[in-house]
Design brief:
single chain, 187 residues, Beta-Lactamase, 5-stranded antiparallel beta sheet, globular, disordered N terminus
Length: 187
Amino acid sequence: MFGAGNLEKKSSKQRLIKPIDKEVHVAEDGFIVSKTDTTGRLTYINRTFMEVSGFVEDELLGQQHNIIRHPDMPRGVFKLLWQELKANREFFGYVKNLCKSGAYYWVFANVTPDFDERENLRGYYSVRRKPAPGAIATIEAVYEKMLAVEAEGDRKTAPDRSIKILQDHIAEQNQTYIQFMQSLDAA
């Protein structure tokens, strides 16, 4: 069961963390590692994940990975992530996550499908690290535009409209998505 802190009971099955404006930084040599099943339920987390997020293993294992999703993250980013994973491709992206306390932390994430020896999908493997110093200001500006588009009109089409904002920004840079991520990583 979740402990004290900024966790508020939403229902017997769902919890809500109240965000606060406090950043937690991932160490230069810190790698946050997690594994999920095919539905996104956490099956493994490393110590760095627990140290940065403030959760303990029992609070996270079996939970949906999006338990740490920050409301400043556009839904379109996660739709893009799932599109890539379902096509058996890895995903790279910048993600703002919530800590148990309500603080936040930024990561540069790499998420890959995890197959068994018979090539059956058994889940997903994610490694996250400290983002490049110059990347966050750029990606935050893009994410703000994506969130604004998601707040307008039909909620069902919001992620697709949001992805278009990201794609248009990348096209203006004359880059592919991967090139854009690499350019931010070098910032």
